Amino acid sequence: MKITQQSTDNTLTLALDGELDASSSVLLDTELTKPDVLKYQKVLIDCQKLNYISSAGLGVFISHLQQFQDAGVKLVFFNMQEKVHNVFEILGLDALMTIVPSAVEASAI
Asked: CA–CA separation, 42 vs 109, rounded Å?
């Protein structure tokens, strides 16, 4: 798993590349736990190169969801591959989290 960061004044974009499983979820959790993450209005998760997500990976996002909401930070997923999106749908997480098709739509939220 590789995580690439890009930021603007109010938006942090994390591009995920590879498989988000039990071992790599620790890396993602470390990124999302950094104090400066909550200074952004939006955290965008680019899933274009994310080809697998395990329950541990999903758990990282779920564990940070309330913290982001309390801080007024919008968490938005975009460019999600169909097989990854299906996992979110099956678990009902698409109702809890914002998932949009493209970077343009993610930036517009």
From this structure: 8
